[in-house]
UniProtKB/TrEMBL annotation, chains A, B:
Keyword match Transmembrane helix: yes
Recorded topology in the membrane: Multi-pass membrane protein
InterPro entries (alphabetical): Cat_transpt
Any GO MF annotation of the entry: monoatomic cation transmembrane transporter activity
Protein name: TrkH family potassium uptake protein
Cell compartment(s), UniProt: Cell membrane
Gene Ontology terms describing biological process: metal ion transport
Annotated keywords: Cell membrane, Ion transport, Membrane, Transmembrane, Transmembrane helix, Transport
Length: 449, 449
């Protein structure tokens, strides 16, 4: 590992953690304001903390029913927190991508008009403006479409737009919270609502650098045919959609004779597609995942564990990490140590980093699963599912999260935190003072596997 | 990856697979001989194949009760097959270690007096002689001690030595088969029998190269203090015993208020120690693992997944793979890309190989777990356990293996095969003609995790 960027990198991680902790603190306070709650609601500190962490990390796991707990002002506060969390995360993720630009290559850095010379703070502000305007645009369009359409479901325009607004914010930020009381289950037969949600979910989870490159591509009229997408964009976008397709196909296959028995092809198709898309990071669902078989629940757990694109609102090990790990195995089996894809070669540092992420993630989620199995009375399938959902900051649930003990809730909070900041940042956090690596010992080979 | 040794490596893998398939074929025939069965036993081809694969890979998972199915001659045939499997595996594993000697270093190669110039076949024969004599020595000592001692349990000397012989063979080869009908449960209170078994299990699973180095160390009278163990021996032995200690401590901790409630400290200690040792590869047990909590069953699954030392009778990802992966994360978090341990530096190729093994193993066991969940009606915990047991060629069971459908049994057979030959060999098997890797594309960085 080259140590060149350590100083910058370390402070970036500190920036994320600082943002995360202060945002959680403020959110805990905001969500605990008396007028944010419906009358008669009991409000415990651990539930406030859990909801704040879940909202800031846009996970969407809940220990209390959002609709039964929060008043209308409370729902607006929650929507604000989701905004703040989603945009904050995207901004910081992308900012680090820019700061690391020297390693990533000049080209990508120039994709965004952030002038590094003006100093990092003004660059950060400008970047946040760009992301904010893009996200707000998505949310506005989503609110208008869903608000108008929801007049079919809700008696007043006010109620329709209130629901449309929250649904749009929750989908775009991939927050997974709902004020219907049962996620998108009321719209299980409404393919229009689902399609709008799918589009918003994908726009939020596909990663800001990808969005910027697509924007650039669309506005480069004269030379659109010569526009070159970065390797990162190609890799993450391909993996993102491949996971959605494979996930949907697996769900269709595994549930053919179970949940989909007796259902029409278009019903089955939309159930499978929506639940596959939502595993990237959405966390919304058009059904109770408990109705799926254990095999499908395991597949969904794995998909959540993989998660979304880097520099998006999503968590997990990230699409690029998964893709690079798979590619490395494939090329290793072919006898090559260089991984070639899209006419580019991966850097060995990125390969090593991917494996570090995968192995650490497996260790951490595995430990959390064992720990929760020891302290909680729930079936191991439900525990695996909730842990993967927390690490992927997905927010799908088999329903045990509200029943967890305090120590169980803290474990899920911890997993949401790690899923959110990412394994690499987490490992950098653990790092104390970086020692030089200037001495060497003789190399010696050992037998592997 | 350097391609220097590809030709040799590929033929080594072919050698293993050739050995494995012909050994399984012969064993299936031998175990199907009519006089090998007790009167009235129904014998299906899939059960014959399963038993042969389990015996040749010294796994010990069973679809039929050994004691109820096999006659006395049948038990001797089984013992022979275990011998053949255990010694064959150790020989081939070590042989490849020697053939790869050029990469591993001259020193280790010289540890065994195999003269490469005499050609690989005579080297193989000589090596097999060494391993055979060592294993037979262990088994003979084990048989004598257990046979004499078992007179306390069995009415005749004949029965005592029959039981002692099989127990000794099963422990030394880490086969995990038993003719008591209930593993070592009859000896749950007998610490002497357990201690002898633990010693034999460790001698079988610690790896032949380690045994050879220990022998060398003991016979190098003049310069014992200057004897340098290889990095491989230090790393694998340390990890081997660390896993046993950590496993026992975790079992003690997790079962303190459950299985160990009301049991004396020495009873608890031996239960925890034996069950921890047996996860390396033994597969024998002094209790029904179903009596442990789910958390302990998960821990045992992970320990089996890790498995034993390379070039031993054991399977799994192997101790070295696990150790190197952990060390790499640790040094990565410190900001170093070089991994230093025991005053030596690991080769980057070995690091990459370790991660390839871990990731492939996670993918394969994960897929097997999902697949079995889809086709079998059993709880996911039991499926996770049996798959890890098969991949680790451990043989512990929560009892569902005999109930599996044919396609389920084939899945377990496949996992035993991969666990046995190892992930690296498996990947080399998949490799077709090795293409040159002489062209290059520009490098481009991507965002990870
Ligand atoms: K989410
Ligand atoms: K075994």
């Amino acid at each position: 590992m080259k140590l060149r960027n350590n100083a910058i990198r370390l402070s970036s991680v500190q920036l994320i953690v600082l943002f995360y902790f202060s945002a959680v603190f403020i959110s805990t306070v905001l969500l605990s304001l008396p007028f944010a709650h419906r009358p008669g609601v009991e409000w415990h500190f651990i539930d406030a903390l859990f909801t704040a962490v879940s909202a800031i990390s846009v996970t969407g796991l809940t220990v209390v029913s959002t609709v039964d707990t929060f008043s209308v002002p409370g729902v607006f506060i929650l929507a604000f927190v989701l905004q703040f969390g989603g945009i904050g995360i995207m901004t910081l993720g992308t900012f680090i991508w820019l700061v690391m630009g020297k390693k990533i290559g000049l080209k990508e850095r120039q994709l965004i008009s952030t002038d590094q010379n003006r100093g990092t703070l003004s660059g950060l502000v400008q970047l946040m403006k760009q992301i904010l305007s893009l996200i707000l645009l998505f949310e506005l369009v989503g609110t208008v479409i869903l608000g108008l359409y929801f007049h079919n479901y809700f008696p007043t325009w006010g109620e329709a737009f209130y629901q449309g607004f929250f649904a749009s914010v929750s989908a775009t930020t991939n927050a997974g919270f709902d004020i219907t009381g049962e996620s998108l289950i009321p719209f299980a037969q409404d393919y229009f609502v689902q399609t709008i949600n799918i589009i918003l979910l994908i726009l939020g989870a596909i990663g800001f650098p990808v969005l910027i490159e697509i924007k650039d591509f669309m506005f480069s009229f004269k030379s659109a045919s010569h526009y070159r997408f970065s390797l990162f964009t190609k890799l993450t976008t391909f993996t993102f959609f491949a996971l959605i397709v494979i996930g949907a196909l697996l769900i269709l296959l595994l549930e053919k004779n179970h949940f989909f028995a007796g259902k029409s092809w278009h019903e089955s198709f939309f159930y499978a597609l929506f639940q596959s898309v939502t595993t990237r990071n959405g966390g919304l669902a058009t059904m109770d995942i408990n109705e799926f078989t254990v095999a499908t629940q395991l597949v969904i757990s794995v998909l959540m564990f993989i998660g979304a694109s880097p520099s998006s609102v999503g968590g997990g090990i990230r699409t690029t990490t998964f893709a690079i790990s798979l590619l490395t195995i494939f090329f290793f089996a072919k006898g090559h140590s260089n991984v070639k894809i899209f006419k580019r070669e991966l850097d060995q540092d990125d390969i090593r980093k991917s494996f570090v992420v995968v192995f650490t993630a497996v260790l951490l989620t595995g430990s959390a699963i064992v720990f929760l199995s020891a302290v909680e009375p729930f079936p191991v399938m439900a525990i695996i599912f909730e842990v993967c959902s927390a690490f992927g900051t997905t927010g799908l649930s088999l329903g045990i999260t509200p029943e967890l003990s305090t120590v169980g809730k803290v474990t899920i909070i911890f997993m949401m935190f790690i899923g959110r900041i990412g394994i690499i940042s987490f490992l950098f956090l653990l790092r104390g003072k970086v020692e030089g690596d200037h001495y060497h010992y003789p190399k010696e080979r050992v037998i592997i596997g």
